[in-house]
Specification:
Number of helices: 1
Radius of gyration: 16 Å
Structural class: mainly beta
Distance between the termini: 11 Å
Helix content: under 10%
Strand order of the largest sheet: 1-8-7-2-3
Largest sheet: 5 strands, antiparallel
Shape: globular
């Protein structure tokens, strides 16, 4: 997942400018029918029984990632500090069609609030009447680098 402009600014200000950032008590998964982008401009699902669901994360761990070195272009392995959701997330049963879900985001409030992280689904999915969208443990992955 990608960090939003809001969170990047808040963290940089907190660490390097001694500007207080009040962290959220809870964070929530939001589903989107378009890319929310770092600027939080996407179209979140609404209506049809949709409500954001709380997500909890495990402690940060180090994981290996394959990247292309910016200078040599060679594929290399790097370690990144990573957190993942620590439990399944089950969205409510759709009481109407939600459309094609293409992205998800982590937000700091059950409604409104700020986008913290966002990313595209590997396989977009159409949510129709009576469907249930489920995210399994460990499928939401956030890193800082």
């Amino acid at each position: 997942m990608n960090m939003s402009n809001y969170l990047a600014t808040a963290l940089l200000n907190q660490v390097f400018r001694n500007t207080a950032y009040t962290r959220p008590a809870k964070v929530y998964i939001a589903l989107y029918t378009s890319n929310p982008t770092a600027a939080d401009t996407g179209q979140e699902v609404s209506g049809g029984g949709y409500i954001r669901q709380e997500v909890t994360f495990g402690a940060p761990t180090s994981e290996n990632y394959q990247i292309f070195h910016p200078t040599t272009g060679q594929q290399v392995t790097v370690q990144k500090r990573t957190i993942k959701n620590s439990a399944d997330i089950v969205m409510p049963t759709a009481t109407a069609d939600w459309g094609q879900i293409t992205h998800m985001g982590v937000r700091d409030a059950a409604t409104g609030g700020n986008l913290l992280y966002f990313g595209a689904l590997e396989t977009p999915r159409s949510i129709l009447l009576n469907d249930i969208f489920k995210i399994l443990t460990g499928q939401i992955v956030c890193t800082l680098a």
